[in-house]
Amino acid sequence: MQQRKAPKASAEGVTEQEASPAAVLPRTATARDLLEAEEAPDQCSMTPRKKNKKRQTGAGERRCRPVLNLLLVAFVVAVLLAVVLLADGGRVPAVWIAAARAQLRRGSGHAWLPYARNAPDKLLGGLLADGVDGETCRSRHESSAYRRSTPRRPSPYLVAKLRRHEELQRRCGPGSDAYSRAVQQLSAGRSAVDAECKYVVSVCNRGLGNRILAAASAFLYTLLTDRVLLVYRGNGMGDLFCEPFPGATWLLPPDFPVAGLANITVDAAETYGNMLKNKVLTADSKEPVQVPALAYAYLEHDYGDGDKRFFCDDDQRLMSNIQWLVARMDTYSVPGLFQVPSFAEELAALFPESDAVFHHLGRYLFHPADHVWGLVSRYYRAYLARAEQLVGVQVRVFDSEQGKSPHVLRQITSCVWKEKLLPEVLAAGEPVITPATGGISRTVLIASLRPWFYERIKSMYWEQPTASGEDVGVHQPSHEEYQQFGRRSHDTKAWAEMYLLSLCDVLVTSGWSTFGYVAQGLAGVTPWVMYRPLNFSETPDPPCGRDVSMEPCFHTPPMYDCKLKHTADTARSVPHIRRCEDVKWGLKLVGPK
């Protein structure tokens, strides 16, 4: 294990570790700011201090004025709790109450007073509709108390679009007369002319991260084309998530007349590409074309040139006449939608910050079901809430031989130490540093199928002092050993851990992993990405790098020229799209320059 000597203190008494950007990141307006350990020692001292003209106020230094601070904290906590009680019908999340008690016991005048800057934003800046019953989905109403505030605000245009889409889901979704008529026409094989309601059915049978990204991609497509979103329920989506649309469902009814959706392949006659190939459809025709009632938009990793025309303008005009589109995809295809010229103006209005698409769509769509939220909230309160900085480390190995790899372990420690995300440990015999008063407490949350990395990192920080003198807690909620497709308990834990990672201040993720993509997007955090090694017997150098944005990577972009109708790299011609750091041929959205 690589070890470092203790960093030298500067003239002002600030070490290299303390001066790093990650070491001084404050958390404001979150539940964690409220919580402190009950056994925290009294920081007040009655001993007079000597004057020092050159005295500088350090990142963790606090001035203690016992009586005034206690009164101030008591007043602020009382007022804020009273406001929340009145605004929320007398209900306050348990995490706030426990936090307020801890703050009062401590009596600190720290700048991180409970909700000193803003109260929890339950509606996420307007993303969520007001007036939804709090008993139907706890996470929808409570999660903002656990998450740090985000500087990314949804555009007014996106907020208005979401309200209109919710009305569309109620008017045309399952249970409505319009849906019944549409299903009857589909069962009869009739194509509805000028259909009042059109639909996208999202189907993905991959891992949970892929299913989340696929559903988000399908949802954006429905916003752009005024279609109803229905999600295939055969992969457990109904068990893991709350319904996102108030007064409507997003789940495809079990009596849907088209069977075998889970078995769609690239060879199916109903795929858009094969319909073009077999002359069932013609996108180039200037005359009105008779279209089928249903077509498969096959966008998985093995799709061909015909299916890639989904991202072409002429083909989108033709598909707009098809009432039912079944979107079979296994990745995040949003960057591909940004390559469709006819969508450009609408996308710019919806997302002025093009690197926050999944951040907004994910927080709107994906609320953990109550049993999943129980796992998240209990674990957070028990192990994470008292930390002033949470560092999430997501470790995904793609080969069984890497499950106990010292090279992967070295990659993790090299990354967090090189980027100063965590303090290094001292070599044997080095003098132990006394922790600075009021220093930041850090906790590491490790998400991995394997327990080996967690055990080594936890032991390292327990058995050896750190170069900064601070203590580091290390936690891992579960270790399932291997991915278990279709098993409800496995998916439940996976979703809980994705969400817990999204509550972290700093993220280190494994390249290629959709698990990490979901967490970073929900968090609104640009991660450090650990590069996938080309040689499993070596540690990559450098071990990691800062990603270009928090957006997920589109692993299989079309690379298709719609005008020339052949394979071509058109990514450079589209604003706000760059190559991914982890998948070199992949595409991802970045912010405007």
From TrEMBL:
<dbReference type="Pfam" id="PF03254">
    <property type="entry name" value="XG_FTase"/>
</dbReference>
<dbReference type="GO" id="GO:0042546">
    <property type="term" value="P:cell wall biogenesis"/>
</dbReference>
<keyword id="KW-0472">Membrane</keyword>
<dbReference type="InterPro" id="IPR004938">
    <property type="entry name" value="XG_FTase"/>
</dbReference>
<dbReference type="GO" id="GO:0032580">
    <property type="term" value="C:Golgi cisterna membrane"/>
</dbReference>
<dbReference type="GO" id="GO:0009969">
    <property type="term" value="P:xyloglucan biosynthetic process"/>
</dbReference>
<protein>
    <recommendedName>
        <fullName>Fucosyltransferase</fullName>
        <ecNumber>2.4.1.-</ecNumber>
    </recommendedName>
</protein>
<keyword id="KW-0333">Golgi apparatus</keyword>
<feature type="region of interest" description="Disordered">
    <location>
        <begin position="1"/>
        <end position="60"/>
    </location>
</feature>
<keyword id="KW-0808">Transferase</keyword>
<keyword id="KW-0961">Cell wall biogenesis/degradation</keyword>
<dbReference type="GO" id="GO:0071555">
    <property type="term" value="P:cell wall organization"/>
</dbReference>
<keyword id="KW-0328">Glycosyltransferase</keyword>
<comment type="function">
    <text>May be involved in cell wall biosynthesis.</text>
</comment>
<keyword id="KW-0812">Transmembrane</keyword>
<comment type="similarity">
    <text>Belongs to the glycosyltransferase 37 family.</text>
</comment>
<keyword id="KW-1133">Transmembrane helix</keyword>
<dbReference type="GO" id="GO:0008107">
    <property type="term" value="F:galactoside 2-alpha-L-fucosyltransferase activity"/>
</dbReference>
<keyword id="KW-0325">Glycoprotein</keyword>
<feature type="transmembrane region" description="Helical">
    <location>
        <begin position="67"/>
        <end position="87"/>
    </location>
</feature>
